[in-house]
Every structure is written in structure tokens, then in C-alpha cells.
Design a protein that fits this description.
alpha+beta; Beta-Lactamase; Arc Repressor Mutant, subunit A; 2 domains; 8 helices; kinase activity; GAF; ANTAR; GAF_ANTAR; RNA binding
Length: 230
């Protein structure tokens, strides 16, 4: 591998990641970069684990989704284990599916039909949180060696920072939008029913709790219909 060229490509990718306009776009750029920059990588995706439920983000091919579902069903696998820091590890590599039956026997017995030969799973993490695992797959056996592992780890490190930043930005945008919508709904209730600001908010909150509907959804209903029962 030409590490000088790779370093230049990584620097370009890092700037590109921070320039993306949404969380989805950032994640799609991460997985596309894995295919472009890591030697041997044919497909990539991000596995997010909630308890033992798996969600696949920005998969470049359907086989990534299929593999993640198999890992969820089996309760094991390199990316599944990376996402939950199994054994304290942040990286798992299958150099050859045929040679790893003892480590993940259930998953690999299912995965035999996916046409995959090797794979890697990298934990995406910052100092504050674990975000998921970056999956990289190859159809060839023995596709990922030490150089691929090093390149993948470097990419995953940049990706984790970009992922965390994009998610924080998305959460802030959502919070601002929610606050604006709730404020607009309160203004409608105050003007229509002669309520104080506190009373208008209580109307929204009470309806939200009684109907088990998110507060923003209640506010959106008021904005579109003029009341909670519209």
C-alpha cells in the first residue's frame, strides 16, 4: 500500500465528512470511503446495536444488511462483538470465513450462503460514547491483511468523530425545530382560548401524556388544525 497516497486520501475524506449536510449523508460517505480506500473491501455498512437489536445504516450493498441480520439472529459475529466491545476488543477480523468456525460458529454457519470470504468490524467510538461498528466485507478469502486492518482502523477513527459531530448537529436541529413548533402551538392556544403561556403548555403536555403521543406531534397537530382534537 502507498501510505503517502493513503494519507492524502484520508485527509481529503476527513474534510469531506465534516462538509456533509446531514447525518445520513455523513454515514453514506463513511461507508463509500471504506470501499474506496481500504484494500480488499467490496461492501461496507454501519451496525448500531440497541440491547441485542441490530440496525444497519448506510449499507453499500444488500449483503451488509443480510449479514447484520444474521449476526442479530445468532447473537454473535465480528461486527456484533465489536459494537458491544466483546472481550474489551474494538476490532475483529475474519481473514477467512472457512477458518473461523470455532469463534462464531452459529453466525458463520448462516453466513456461508452470503458469498463472503472475509470481513472486519471496527468499533466507532469517541471519548464519550460508543456509536456502533463499521463493517467491511470482501467476497475473496484472505482479502484483509495487516495493511487493510491498519487502513480500516484509521478510517474508523475519523469516521467516529464525524458520526458523533453529525449526530449532535442533527439532534440540535431537531431540538430547535421542536421548540419552534411547540412555541407556535402555544401561541395558537393562547390566542384562541385566552390561556396564559403556562396554561397553554399544560394543555399540550396533558394531551401528550394522556394519548401517549410525543409533545412535538401534539404541537404539529395544533399548528395544522388549530386544536388538539382536529
Amino acid at each position: 500500500m502507498d501510505w503517502r497516497l493513503f494519507a492524502t486520501q484520508m485527509a481529503t475524506m476527513a474534510r469531506d465528512l465534516l462538509a456533509q449536510e446531514s447525518l445520513d449523508a455523513t454515514l453514506e460517505r463513511i461507508t463509500a470511503s471504506a470501499v474506496e480506500l481500504v484494500e480488499g473491501c467490496d461492501a461496507a455498512g454501519i451496525l448500531v446495536l440497541h440491547d441485542r437489536r441490530v440496525r444497519t445504516l448506510a449499507a453499500t450493498e444488500q449483503v451488509v444488511v443480510d449479514s447484520d441480520r444474521l449476526q442479530e439472529r445468532a447473537g454473535e459475529g465480528p461486527c456484533f462483538d465489536a459494537a458491544r466491545r466483546a472481550g474489551g476488543r474494538r476490532l475483529f477480523r475474519i481473514a477467512d470465513f472457512a477458518a473461523e468456525a470455532a469463534r462464531w460458529p452459529v453466525y458463520l454457519s448462516y453466513a456461508d450462503g452470503l458469498g463472503l470470504g472475509s470481513m472486519m468490524g471496527f468499533l466507532l467510538f469517541t471519548e464519550d460514547e460508543d456509536l456502533g461498528a463499521l463493517d467491511m466485507y470482501s467476497r475473496a478469502r484472505g482479502a484483509f491483511g495487516e495493511a487493510s486492518e491498519t487502513a480500516g482502523w484509521m478510517l474508523a477513527s475519523h469516521a467516529a468523530v464525524a458520526f458523533s459531530s453529525a449526530r449532535t448537529d442533527a439532534q440540535m436541529r431537531e431540538a430547535l425545530a421542536t421548540r419552534h413548533t411547540i412555541g407556535e402551538a402555544m401561541g395558537i392556544l393562547m390566542g384562541r382560548h385566552g390561556l396564559t403561556e403556562e396554561q397553554a403548555f399544560d394543555v399540550l403536555r396533558t394531551y401528550s401524556q394522556e394519548k401517549n403521543v410525543k409533545l412535538r406531534q401534539v404541537a404539529e397537530r395544533v399548528c395544522s388544525t388549530g386544536g388538539t382534537d382536529g
